[in-house]
Write a structure and sequence with these properties.
about 525 residues; alpha+beta; Uridine Diphospho-n-acetylenolpyruvylglucosamine Reductase, domain 3; eight-stranded antiparallel β-sheet; five-stranded antiparallel β-sheet; Oxid_FAD_bind_N; flavoprotein; FAD
Length: about 525
């Protein structure tokens, strides 16, 4: 396991202690595995033994047999790792045989877990180009640069920032873009900011595409079918403060609370009133334009004090005692809390979208609002996108369906997260390429991830415009219609044009979605005699 570069080991394990009991249970249930993503990234929640964790930490930056893992280790395999010191070395390596390109493993669905294929460990390599062009207000980024490195470079040296990003900053920038990583609000999908990119084709030669080129809108977000991408150029924006309001209210008040905001992220407590559930809303507004998001006043008196005391302790109980989740949320529903917090964000804050208070959340104790939104540590995550206007109905549907599964021992984790993507993006496979969308994130114990896949399929039966999150959805042929078969065919034409040798590989989940043949056989398939 690779620790984040800039976080002390001790503090990192404190932040991960939330996950350990869940992962220990998962290991007892038989999920012993390992993790990965595209050229993309994440901290790996681990159900490994201490010796295995140490072995993984020692392996970072080295070549040879390594485990490739998806977050929470539901998907994993052991393969040969290569760490490209520079572009020339990378070009030579991809000419030697079948390969994939790996970043920091932010995927939950194992999109880059491919057995028997050499893994190019891009985030650990030496492709660290990082330059800013003041004339065009763009930044050029190499394949080994993390989101954190990029944000610090732009902020500290040029007073600039990204239009949007995900909330995990150790992932590689290029990997985050390739897998559709998004925040919320304007220009929500990171890949929408790409103006130029360069990749190596099957012979190791450079190919550069610019916005407006016929193939650009496909390659800018290709979920691993075009790789390695070695450099890209991104638009940037000035650093600026925002008015951030975090409110606790009801889903029926969502429209009222969002009024005047430019970005909204809301979390629903799934075991409160199914017809009007309790929500925690985080809305951003510009400081000098329009109307601030309205908000409920702080609760006062004895009931308000008790509500704050209870909420600070609820999240801890929620993590460790799932059977108490429903009664505790019913109690919160009965309290009918109306609270809010207003903050003007620091222009230099790297993660104001997810944590509006100054400073990085990993450097200070979490507040109750941030705790409820910090879903990364709560277990297995499955996500998909639905049309924005359908999001409240989809959430209510999920609440009803999930509650009906309680007798089977299934519980959603503490929240259903909804991130709003109100604009339309340029890349064809961006979530909001056709219309405004909402990202629905569901969380459960790793042992229960199959129930999350069932909920996804149920939603898709009623909402055919559901689109995949390439690192979190259960991928498969059911997404072809919403992605557009003509677009998928065009992407594969581009892939075959640049990689006719057939050495760039992708997982069976992507192969099934693209309908490009049978999956590569893993050791179990070979050992059992299922394949020759």
């Amino acid at each position: 396991m690779t620790l984040p570069d800039s976080v002390p080991e001790r503090s990192w394990f404190r932040s991960c202690e939330d996950v350990v009991p869940v992962l220990a249970n998962a290991r007892r249930a038989g999920y012993g595995g390992k993790t990965v993503a595209w050229q993309g990234g994440a901290m790996i929640g681990s159900n490994l033994s201490r010796s295995e964790r140490r072995a993984d930490a020692r392996a970072a930056g080295t070549e040879g047999k390594r485990w490739i893992r998806s977050w929470i280790n539901v998907f994993r395999c052991e393969t040969e790792a290569r760490v490209p010191a520079d572009e020339a070395r990378l070009g030579k390596l991809i000419g030697e045989g079948e390969y994939t390109c790996i970043g920091k493993s932010h995927s939950y669905n194992g999109v880059q877990v491919v057995p028997g294929v050499t893994a190019m460990m891009m985030r650990e390599g030496g492709l660290k180009t990082l330059t800013y062009d003041a004339a065009t207000e763009t930044v050029r980024v190499g394949a080994s640069v993390s989101v954190r490195d990029l944000k610090l470079f732009l902020r500290d040296e040029h007073g600039r920032g990204l239009h949007n990003s995900g909330n995990y900053m150790e992932q590689s920038v290029i990997g985050a873009l390739a897998t559709g990583t998004h925040g919320f609000g304007p220009r929500a999908v990171m890949a929408d900011s790409i103006v130029e990119l360069t990749f190596l084709n099957g012979t190791g030669q450079r190919v550069t595409l610019k916005r407006g080129d016929p193939d650009f809108a496909y390659v800018a977000l290709s979920f691993g079918t075009i790789a390695p991408i070695v450099e890209l150029v991104l638009e940037t924006k000035p650093l600026e403060p925002y008015v951030s309001v975090s409110s606790m209210s009801r889903l029926s008040k969502l429209g009222e609370l969002k009024q005047g905001s430019i970005a909204a992220n809301w979390a629903v407590l799934p075991y409160t009133d199914p017809d009007d559930p309790v929500i925690m809303l985080h809305a951003l507004a510009e400081c000098d334009k329009g109307q601030e998001p309205s908000a409920h006043p702080e609760a006062k008196g004895g009931s308000g004090w008790f509500a704050k005391w209870f909420l600070k302790r609820y999240y801890k109980f929620d993590r460790f005692l799932p059977k108490l989740r429903r009664p505790m949320q019913r109690f919160i529903d009965w309290l009918d809390l109306k609270q809010s917090e207003r903050v003007v964000t620091d222009p230099g804050d790297l993660d104001y979208l997810y944590d509006p208070k100054p400073g990085l959340k990993e450097n200070r104790a979490p507040s109750i609002t941030r705790g409820l939104f910090s879903t990364t540590y709560t277990g297995y995550n499955l996500a998909f996108f639905v049309p924005l206007e359908k999001a409240p109905a989809v959430v209510k549907f999920i609440i009803h369906e999930a509650d009906a599964l309680r007798d089977l021992g299934f519980y959603l984790k503490g929240i259903i997260s909804v991130r709003e993507l109100p604009g339309e993006a340029g890349p064809h496979f961006a979530a909001n390429a056709r219309q405004a969308m909402a990202a629905i994130d569901l969380f459960a114990d790793p042992r229960d991830y199959a129930w999350l896949e069932r909920l996804q399929l149920l939603v898709m039966q009623y909402e055919p415009d559901t689109r995949p999150h390439f690192g979190k959805s259960a991928l498969g042929p059911h997404f072809r219609d919403s992605l557009g078969q003509a677009h998928l065919d065009r992407l594969m034409d581009i892939h075959r044009t640049h990689y006719p040798q057939g050495r760039l590989m992708f997982s069976e989940r992507v192969r099934t979605m693209l309908d490009v043949g049978r999956p590569l056989p893993g050791e179990a398939a070979a050992d059992s005699g299922l394949v020759g």
